[in-house]
Amino acid sequence: MKKIEITDMFGKYGAFQRVVFIFAVTISMFGAYHNLIITIVAPDVDHWCARTEGYENLTVEEWKETHLPKQTVDGVVTHSHCQYYTNDSLEATACSRWEYDTSFYRRTIVQEWDLVCADRWLVSLSQSVYMAGYMTSMIIFGQLSDR
């Protein structure tokens, strides 16, 4: 019985296979970037309530110490990201504007559209809608490609 090698059927690895491989990897990279883009454009950015009128001259640290309530998250005491004290009182109010730490991320959709606090869920929703559309298209176009 004669032994048949797989390379006898399809040919040896040559220039054509190399080009096909490079093309397939390149196309796959674009798909991977597309699936992971939400981690790049909508990362968790440090934010706090924006300084209100009359307090613009305070530094960020002074503003945080004097006007942001403290809270304990996982055993660590931090300043609130979503509330501030109004008019030097101890009454906390929800923020309507935010300031962001731009030391690492200069501009993200989180900063552009204020997707923090009560609106943070919109980031997760956008990723879920994308993945649902991705799954639906795979089912539909998978069936169409088999015909």
UniProtKB/TrEMBL annotation:
Q: The organism sits in which domain of life? A: Eukaryota
Determine if Transmembrane helix is one of this entry's keywords: yes
Membrane-traversing stretches: 20-42
Keywords annotated in UniProt = Membrane, Transmembrane, Transmembrane helix
- What is the protein name given in its UniProt record? Organic anion transporter
